[in-house]
Amino acid sequence: MGRKTKKLKSKRNAESTQEKKCPQISNENKSEVKSRFSADELLDKADEYLETFNYDMARRFCQRAVEQDALNCRALEMSGLLFLQADKADLAIGCYRKAVELKPEIGHVKYMYLGQLSSGIEAVEFYLKGIELMNKKLAEVQASQSTDVVGKEETSGGGSTVAKDSVSEITPRDVSNAYCAVAEIFLTDACFEDDAEVRCKESLDKAIEADAANPESFHLLASYWLSKDDRTKASEAINHGISLWLPQLRSADQPDGATAVDPVQVCSVGFSARINCTKTLIELQDYEVASEILELLLDEDDEVVEVWYLLGWINFLLGEDFKTNSRHYLSKALELATKQKYEDQQMISHVHELLNELGPEITEDNQMDEDDSLSESDDEDKEKSKPENANESEAMQH
Questions:
Q1: Residue 283 CA to chain centroid, in angstroms?
Q2: Do residues 211 and 173 lie in contact, with contact meaning Cβ atoms separated by under 8 Å?
């Protein structure tokens, strides 16, 4: 399992996480805290502001809840989320770890975040604990629903609201995605572990078992088979994964004048995941489908450097007849990279390399200049050849 792929998640040193503690939140505006509001009521209000992306107000209400109950796990987890939103990963980790200490067997979300914010085997352990709690909750919900069905047969009462709420919180897709996260770690950070190959495949099998309609599991399965140089199985996996979402996107790609459809509403696969999917397709030389997906991504957002770069790279690989297209896409990628101060220098260097190899674009003006230059060169050659011909003629006369 020596094949490394780029991991699109936050990383940090596993040892330093052990030393982080949940930060003390300041007592600013403490006098505004009203004793008549409980910590949960304050957090409910914070949730309302989170839903409207008003992070400043959400932070204020969350802070008040922490001041009122510093050991409230819900407040700690919300604090972690707000710290992440503010790009303060270390502080978020401290909150989530404190929540784990307080209630290690209740609530899977903190483990999911800690898995994302950690690396290697430590991250795997966080994910597996979160999966354990999710499966336990789903089993409880299933049992509750079964009991509710029996109750409906015996009475005319309503269903179990507890079961309904639980179903809305955790789904089989959540479990499948968590297993995918574990598999990805064994394809990247932990790829040199002795049992990495076995554990990666086991995680992918469990991801598919949890939700056979989850495209991400098949996308990662394709990467797994590529790491084993089995291109046939890789193609089968990626094509099956794509079949679960690309047809819906095609139908949403309406002609001009039709009602626009939000791709998010018809496709469960995120923007970045679709970009990664095209990289696998390029590696498998399926340029046509990769180009189609990338063009659809441009329709959603035409300011993403990587999408322009990949389209340029595909057209470069397609050969001489596609040089003009390649030059267009690569030039646009370079323009956006300069504008956005893009940080991936390796990609930018490759763009420069490809553009240099493609050479300047042939336009009418430089084509005329080239023709004139060739014409002048021919005239010079004719002039040079005249004396030689004259000498030859004179020599023949003698």
A1: 18
A2: yes
**Residue 114 contacts residue 133 (beta carbons within 8 Å):** no
Give the span between the Cα atoms of 278 and 292, in whole angstroms: 9
Helices (H), the chain: 14-17, 39-51, 55-68, 73-85, 89-102, 109-117, 120-154, 161-169, 172-187, 196-210, 215-227, 231-243, 246-252, 263-266, 271-283, 287-300, 305-317, 323-340, 345-358, 364-397
Residue in 189, 124, 191, 137 with CA at minimum distance from that of residue 168: 137
* 85: its two tokens: 């939103």
User: 338 — alpha (psi -120 to 50), left (phi > 0) or beta?
Assistant: alpha
* Residue 19 CB neighbour total at 10 angstroms: 9
C-beta of residue 307 within 8 angstroms of C-beta of residue 340? no
Rg of the chain (C-alpha set) = 30
| Residue at token pair 């791709």 | 263
For 313-326, the pLDDT digits (tens) are 999 999 999 999 99
Contact 35, 112 (CB under 8 A): no
- 286 vs 269: CA distance, rounded Å: 19
Q: How far apart are CA 106 and CA 103, in angstroms?
A: 5
Cα distances from 134 to residues 99, 114, 140, 203, 241, in angstroms, run 17, 15, 10, 15, 24
Q: Tell me the pTM.
A: 0.76
**Which two tokens mark 125?**
């352990």
Identify the CA nearest to 138 among candidates 110, 163, 115: 163
Q: CA dist 188 to 113, 119, 226, Å?
A: 18, 10, 13
SS3 296: helix
The model's pLDDT over 325-354, given as tens digits with 9 standing for 90+, comes to 999 999 999 999 999 999 999 999 999 999
Instruction: Report the alpha-carbon distance of residue 124 to residue 184 in Å, rounded.
Output: 10
CA dihedral (37, 40, 42, 47) positive or negative: negative
